[in-house]
Amino acid sequence: SGTLTLHRGSIHALIGENGAGKSTLVKIVAGLYRRDAGDLELHGEPVDFTSTAQSKAAGIAVIYQEPTLFPDLSVTENIFMGRQPTGRMGRIDRRAMRDEALEIFSRLGVAMDPDRLVEGLSIADQQLIEIAKAISLDAQILIMDEPTAALSGVEVERLFAVARSLRDEDRALLFISHRFDEVFSLCDTVTVMRDGSYIDTLRIEDTTVDALVSLMVGRDVTDMYPKLPADIGDVRLEVRNLTRKGVFRDVSFDVRAGEIVGLAGLVGAGRSEVVRAVFGIDRYESGSVLLDGQPLPPHNPRLSTGRGIALIPEDRRQQGLVLADSVTRNMTLSIRSHLAKWGLIWTGLENEAAKVRASRLEVKPAALDAEAGTLSGGEQQQLVIGKWLATEPRVL
Questions:
Q1: How far apart are CA 270 and CA 273, in angstroms?
Q2: What span, in angstroms and rounded, lies between the C-alpha atoms of 29 and 14?
Q3: 135-to-63, 101, 138, 169, 252 alpha-carbon distances in Å
Q4: How confident is residue 267, by pLDDT bands cut at 50, 70 and 90?
C-alpha cells in the first residue's frame, strides 16, 4: 500500500515495467475504471468518478500517447467539440472559438494554425491540441501517458517546454514514461510501481537511474542487456535500389545471419515504408529484394511469411492485433494453417501453442483468455512479437 500525491506547480513521474499497473491507475483517475478499494481525493475531498465526464468536470485531463481526434474537422473545432460558444440566435460563435484557440497556443508558446484540418497533423501536434483542449476546460491536473513514445527529439523538447509552462501556471502534472533521461530532465518527483503495487516515491535529486531500475524489477541489476558477441554469417536479406516515387528512392542494404541492422532517420523519412515494401504490404516501382540469394516477388506478404520473413509493425493496435479477440487467438494467428486438421482449427492445439509461446515471452497464463485490447501497451507489444516469433522467421 502507498499514496501517490500530486502537488500544484510540480511534475510527478510514474514509472514501472510493462504491466506494472500504471495505465490501469490512470484509467481509474480518468473515470474509465472503478476502483475496488482505496481512496481517491481531489483538493483534500474524497471523489468517486463513474464516468470520464465526471473526471473532466473535476479538472482532470489525460493526454494519451495516441490522441483520438476528428480528422475532418479543424484544430479549433476539435478543441471545442461539444461545447462550442454561441452568440445571438444560438449560432456558434466561430470568431470567439478561434480567438480563444489562438490565445491558448500563444500561452503555450506554440505556432498552430487554428483553421487547418487535423488530418495529416503529426502525433506531436495532435497531442498539443489535446493539451489546448484541457486548458480551455481549465484542467488543473494533466496526466501524460507515455506521450513521447512516437515523437522525434525536436518534438519531445517542444512538449517538455509546454509541460514546464503548465507547471509554471501552478497546474499539477503526472508524467508516465519508460525513458529515464526524460524523467530526470523534466520531473521533480518519481513514484515507482511493480506488479500492480506501489513501491516508493522519491525526489528526483535524491535518486539515480540504477536505484530506480532496482525498485522497478525488485533486485539489483548490474547489466540488464549486455551486448554479447555474435557470429555473423552469410547475407540473408539483400535490398537493392528499392524505389517508390515520392516515398523513398535507391535504398540498398544487406542483413546477415546473426546480425541486427538499424534503419535510422527522422519521422517521415521513409523507414517504415521501406520495410513495408520489403515485406510485401506496399508496392515499389523499381529495385529488388532477395532472400538467401533468391528473388522475393513484390507485393505478396503471404509469400514473404512462407519464405521466412516476419514484420512487427509500427502501429501495434491498428496493424498488429485483433483487439476484440483473445490473447490465444492473436498469438496463433500467424500459424493457424499449422493448427488445422481437415480444414478445422483445433482449439486444443491452439491453446497448447499459445501456452508454449506465452511462457517464453513471460505472458501470464491467466491472460490467455482475455481480449487483446485489455492488455497494457507493453503487453500488447509482447503479444505482437510472440505472434511473429511463432513463425520461426529467418528475417525479422
A1: 5
A2: 14
A3: 12, 10, 5, 11, 47
A4: low
pLDDT of residue 348: 80
**Strand pairing partners for 238?**
254, 290
Quick one: cell of 200? 516508493
Return the DSSP state at 47: -
Residue 1 has pLDDT above 60, yes or no: no
Distances (CA, A) of 199 to 29, 160, 212, 216, 281: 19, 26, 10, 8, 44
Whether residue 328 has pLDDT greater than 70 = yes
| Distances, alpha carbon 375 to alpha carbons 23, 230, 357, 386, 387, in Å | 10, 34, 16, 14, 15
CA distance 10 to 166: 9
Bridge partners (DSSP) listed for residue 116: none
Residue 239 confidence (pLDDT): 97
> What 3-state class would DSSP assign to 127?
helix
What share of the chain has pLDDT > 70, as a percent?
97
Alpha-helix residue ranges (DSSP H) falling in the chain: 22-29, 52-57, 75-79, 94-108, 123-136, 153-168, 180-186, 209-217, 271-279, 301-307, 327-331, 347-360, 377-389
Give residue-wise pLDDT tens across range 70-86: 999 999 999 998 888 78
Q: What is the DSSP letter of 341?
A: E
Lowest mean pLDDT among 30-34, 117-121, 319-323, 346-350: 346-350
Q: Report which secondary-structure segment, H or E, holds 68.
A: none
**How much is the mean pLDDT over the chain?**
88
Closest CA to 141 of 242, 277, 2, 47: 47
Q: What is the CA radius of gyration of the chain?
A: 24
d(CA 27, CA 35): 10
- Are the CB atoms for 287 and 240 separated by under 8 Å? yes
Closest C-alpha to 175, from 27, 22, 12: 12
Asked if residue 220 has pLDDT above 80, the reply is no
DSSP H or E run through 82:
none
Lowest-pLDDT choice from 35-39, 240-244, 278-282: 35-39
Say how far apart CA 70 and CA 323 lie, in whole Å.
21
